[in-house]
Every structure is written in structure tokens, then in C-alpha cells.
Design brief:
Chain A: GO terms for molecular function: ATP binding; ATP hydrolysis activity. The structure holds 2 protein chains of 2 kinds. Chain A is of the alpha/beta class. Chain A is 31% helix and 24% strand. Chain B has a single domain, classed as MetI-like (MetI-like fold), CATH 1.10.3720. Classes of the chains: A alpha/beta, B mainly alpha.
Amino acid sequence: MTSLDTTESAVLDVAALSIRGRRAGAEVGIVDNVALRVASGEAIAVVGESGSGKSLTVRALLDLLPPGVTAAGSIRFDHRSLGKLTARERHRLRGCQLAFVMQDPFTMLNPLQRCGEQIMAALRARDRRLTRKLCRAQAVARLEEVGISDPAVADRYPFELSGGMRQRVAIAAAIAERPRVLVADEPTTALDVTTQREILSLLDRLRRDHGLSLVLITHDLDVAFSVCDRVYVMYAGTVVESGPTAAVADRPRHPYTFSLIQAKPPLDVRVDRLLNLPGGVPSPGNWPEGCRFAPRCRWATDECTHEHPALNDVAPAHQVRCVRAGEIEHELVPRAAPTVIGSDRLARADETEALVHVRAARKTFGTGRRAKVAVESADIDVFAGESVGLVGESGSGKTTLARMIVGLTRPTSGEVRVGGVDLGQGKLSRADWSMVRSTAQMAFQDPYSTLNLRLSVGDTLNEAIRLAPKDTVRRDPAELLDLVGLPTSYQQRRPTQLSGGERQRVAIARALARNPRLIVCDEIVSALDVSVQAHVLNLLADLRRDLGLSYLFITHDLAVVRQVTERVYVLMDGRIVEQGSTPAVLDDPRDSYTKQLIRSVPAHHRRDGLVDRSRRTP
Amino acid sequence: MSTSLTLTGWRTRRPRRRPGIPVGVLIAAVLLLVPIVCVLFPSLGPGNATRIVASDALLTPSAEHWLGTDSLGRDVFARMVHGASSALLGPLLLASVTVAISTVLALIAGYYRGWADGVISRFVDVLYSVPPLVVAVVLVGVLGGGFWLGVAVLTVFNLPHNVRVLRAAVEEQAQLPYIEAAKTLGTKSIRILWRHLVPVISPLIVASFFLRFTYGIVDLSALSFLGLGVPPGSTDWGRMLAENRVTMLQNFWATAAPGLALIVMAVSANIVGDWLYNRYEAAGRAR
């Protein structure tokens, strides 16, 4: 053990933490024997996909478990065992010493209270009576600490602020009582990449200035690597690997960590194929015997399925729960030889046939002085066989543009030609609409609302198939499911029985039912876990090869754009600010906004450092 | 090592779906069946509900008259059996028509929005500002139309609440991607409404039906109690309550039986409706 994580310096020390809940009437384990240590002033990350138990683990620390869920184990905060404290003392500790910031900046704040009041509420007048005036001064000072220098924000309501501002206010409230540990559960997941960077640097600065310890829960390895000293990787309720950031990032020793790193699309190179990690995280109650990752592990042997491996030291402060960690060490080298696709191997677009031809398209909502411009003026083309990216942050108008292309909303002015039909021109005939719909179909972001929960998968597909034009190939549901790599038996399933990735596949199958030539993909992978995201991206590549599809790929994730598109448009405030071939735009951006977007990607921070500091290496 | 710690979340939430039918719901369902049987087979009831035997007035319950007799010497039990039809059919019709009309209005307003929504929503707002029972009392009193006019008036004035609840649900669903996907594929609006939206809001439709049914029982019997419902002389639980309350001390059961029957029916309908809603709603939850 190094001095880094001896118990003496640990402000938070969790040992043998187990969490149990009920599922279908039976008691099941959700988290199993987890140990975490946070030294004073240290930042740790708990990383895992959905279902890994990471959120419940930290909720147990904060006494915030949902109903019906129980935790047992030892939690020591600053040498005091929480088990020996009364509920009241724990409550006080939670507000003052252990603070919590949640994911969703839209629901975390009380919508009916001004921001200043919410920060003042967090200031507890324990041994000092604070006057209202003093309290307000404190609130303004706290806002200043989180980078909000305008005191007027204290008098605003949360709905008047942007997501990033709200997250700042929430952090200001959380640190109001000068806690020693700040727990942040996916604090940047709902934010744009540039805002994400600001919040991450803010957390990093607060940690430095106040000696705050940080526990960051995230599904994004790059976010974890960019701000934390040490990383805990969780899988199916256990910690499978823990160690210093540099060691875990560069030399992962657990196949799961390695797979996560490999499945993440790289920003700087285009790879032939992302790592396909088969299966999904087993749900509580369905954990396999032996190593829980074994069924999905390329390196699994008989030995792995027999007994649950222990967490062993492989290097100083670097622990791995894998019996074969020593043998396979040399195979787990992230991105050893990326198969870069040269520009010559990029699919060639047929520039004679424009599926989508948009000129000076403008869309405003509302009329008169209150009219809001969503798309100012956009010129884009998508040619047959081409995959085009449309990049921008929330509010840039990219979704509105996409909706115009599939005819869900009509342009206020300008030309939106889809399959030769101009959607900007008055009333369209039935044949025109049929042309538009056979040309462009859409896949949506949220896997949980993209399917009608009352219809089975088969019914959903049949609903789409019956609309296919009479003169084209009519596919049947089994064939469509096969195209997206799902078993035929899924026809009988209800959407509630499917995982997020499977729902997205069904949604793609539904879009394919009309034999479209272009699929507009609106952030279709952004709500998915890394390994599932890789599945879907690989599927899209296969479909393109097999069916000759074109894509218009709307996303905020530049690494995804790098993997799946040849050309890219960068959209800001309803205008195209930059366009060109994907490698050219990403490697040599000309526009200052594009540059800022690329700089903000967390994968960049690790290499360059979020802020200047030396990193401990093992 | 330190002492172990046990943190417990509150165990308040019931499991989402319990297998089988809870006993309470079963009892409620059986109790709801009783008046239905009475309506379908009125001959099962004992004796004549309208025969007046002056000498037998105000008897207490006995083997011959299970619930005794009223002040005119009519058998209370027989009147209870015959009264089931107006107690059940009125609310049934009221609930069915209200829910059917309000579903159509809600679908039009919530899905198409625009001017249709404006017209429907303002119309509903105007209706909402009037208390249904008071209007029913005035209209039925002035027009003297009796029971079915009461049902009709209450049906119209029960619309607003239903339309609002269902419209909100339709509006929320209509913006979701699965509806947009259906539009993008070129599904006709009427099919989107029927195939996608109606099934999704069906739990609410079921819940609204039972809620309206319960209110219907109470409102219609209130009208009868005030003498505005069924014509004088006919058998109706609400009217029995009104007629027999002055002789409550002589034959308690002549008043208590219709009152209890109304309460039991209303509560049972509520329990069954609630259970159906929960069960149905849980089946369509997102995650």
C-alpha cells in the first residue's frame, strides 16, 4: 500500500458495503462487498454502465436509498463510524460535511424558489444567527465561487437559467456549508460538451481551493480520467478494477475496463470497427456464478466460471478482480494498432443525386416580436450513399433542421428538397408525400419513448410495413428484425422487455420498413451505454454496406461523427458555421466555434490536462 | 474494523403488481354483481314491490318481510331489488356516454391542437364554471323531465373534468417520438389516434369511467332524493331514502338499506376501477 490510501488519511472509508433490494418478491443483491477510500483533497471516480450499482453505492453513503432497499457494511467518515451516529447526526453530517450534486440540472432545484434562497436554505444557522442580509451576501459570495459574478442571478428562478448555470447554482448550494466531500452523480451528463468542460474545471478548481474531496459518479471514462486521481470501475455490483487514473487508462488490467476503453469511439482516428462487447450487464438476481463478467469476456476460461475472483493487487494501489490478470496483461493494450481508414477507403458518394437539398431554409416559431428563430439559414446537401454529420449544441437548431427534412415541421421560408420534392412549397400531393417518406425516415434519441409501449415489437413493425409503397419490396417483421440483428422471437416482446439498445434497434428496423434511402439519426446513441453505443454504430455501418443507405447523423459527440460520417456541417445558433470533409474539419478546424467544440471533448483533457497540474503515477 | 451499519430505505411502496386478484377487489366485484343480477332477473325478488297493504305498514324485519315494510305497507326488500335497475342503469349510461364523448373531444383537442383545441377547451372551461348538480336540479325542476333528463344533463356537465384529464394525457403522448415516427412513416391521423393514442390512454379512460359511474350513483340518487329523478311511485333507492326517512324510527331498515346499498355500490365501483387502472397502467410503464 502506498501512503495515498492508508486509512489514516482517508476522509471517507467504505468497507464491505452490500446493498440489497427486492425484485419480483424475492430479495436480491444489488451491490456486493464494495470498498472505497477517498483521501482528503482527493478526487475519485466510480465508473460503470447502467446497472452496475454505482449510483446506489453512493446513495448508501448519503442515506438516500430508495424505499425497499437496504445497505449493510461499514462506512467511516473522518474516523467516525456512521453506524454509531444517530439518524439525526447523520442528517447533519450529510448537509454540512458530505454534499451531493445530482445529474439533472432541471429537476434538482426547486422551480418555485429563487436561486439565492436555495443557497441560503443550504446555509444552516447552527451556532450563529445569520441575518437575512448577511445570508444574501453569503449566497452571492457562493455564486461568485462557482463563477457566477452577476449577483442578479440570486434573484432569478431556475427556469430562467441555462442547464450549465443551474448546475453551477446547485454546486454553489452543495458547497455552501464548506463540506469536506462532494459527491457528484453524473453532474455533466445532461450538459453540452462546452458546458461540461466548464463544470468539470469548476469542480477541479473547487477541489484545489477548498481542499474538497470529490466522488464523481459517471458512465463516461473520459470524464473520469480528465478530473480524477483514482478510478473505481464497477460491474454488476462489484468493483472490478481500481487504481490511479494513468494506470487504469493506459494499462487497464481487467478485460471489462479494457472493453469499455476499446468500445468508446476515439476522437482522433477513424477505426474500422468498434469493439463489440456481446450481451449486457446482468441484472441483480441474475449474476452468473464465478466471475460476473465471464459470459461476455473474450479471455474467460473454465476457471473463471467457478468462483468469484477476489480483488488482488497487481501494482501499487492498482487492484483487479480477475484470475487471469497476470496472464493476459500483454493483450490488454488499448488501441494497440488502430485500423485507420484512409480517405480513399471512405465510401464514395454519388454527387449527381442529391437526396436532400436544402437552401436558405429558415424556421421560426411564433409570430411578430416574440418569434423565435430556430434555424436562421441553412444550406446542406446529402447525396446518395453518403453519411453526413450535423454537429451542434442544444439550441443550435439541428433537431429542427432534421424535423424539416422528414416533414415533421415545415420551413418558414427557403427550399427543403427531399427526393426532389420541395417541402417549402405550400400543399403537397399524396404522391409527393409518399416520395418524401420513401426517401427519408428518422430514428429518435430517447430509446424509452421511441416505441409505443402498448404495442408489441411485431405490431410496431407491421404498422410501419403496411405503409410501404405497393411497388417496392415488402419486408416482413422477421426479416426486419434480422436486419438489425435481433432474433425473430422478439416479435412477441413488448418494449418494456427490451433494453435501451434493443429498443433503438427496433426503431431502426421500423424506419427501414418503408425502404428509405436516407435515415436521419437524431442523437440515437447519446442515451446509450458505451458498449451498446458501439453495437448500434457497428450496426449502422453494416446496414449502410448491405442496403446502400445514406445517413444524416445529428449529434453533439464529435467522436461519433469521426466514426460514421464522411462530411460534416457545424451548426451554431441556426447557422452553418463550418463544413467540409470530416477528417479535415476535425483535424484542422477553421471556425473558432468548431475549435472550441473540439477543445471541450473530455478525451482531450486527459492528454493536455484540464488545468495545469502534475499527476501522480504509480 | 468498525461496527457494522445498516441503513434502511422506507418500506412503504407496495410491489408494483401482485399476482392474482386481491380479496378486497374480489368482494367488491361480487357486490357489484348483485345489482346487475337484480336488473337482469327482477323475478328473482320476492313479492310485489308496489303492492300497498295498509295493514302491514311499518313492520320491522321478519321472515315474511326481510327488511320490513314502509309507511304504505310495501315490502322493502322487494323494492330494493326493483330499485336496482335505476340505481345501476342511470350511472352506467351516464358514465359510458360521458367517457365516450370526452375521449373523442380530448383526442381532437390534444392531437390536432390549433383552433379545434381552442374551441373545445373554451367550451369545456365554460361548462366547468357551472356546478352540475345545481343545473340538473334547476333544469329537471323547470322542465319536469324526470330521470332520463337528469342523466342527460349530468352527462353534459360531467364532460369538462374528463376532457381536461384525457386531453392532457393525449397532448403529452402526442409529442413523443413514437407518434412522430408514425407520422414520418405516413400513418394517417385517424389511425394514429385509434391504433396508438387510444390504447396508451386507455387506463385513464377506464379510470374515468369508474369515477363517473361512482359520481353518477351519488348524483342521480341525490336528484331522486330531492324528488326530481324518477316519477313519484316508482321504485328507486334515492326516492326510498327520501320517503322513508320520516319513519326511520319505526322501521330503521327501510331507510338504511337503500342508503347502505348506494354506499356499497359506489365504494365497490371505486375499488374495482382503481384496481383495474393500477394493473393496466403498470403493464405499460416505460422501464
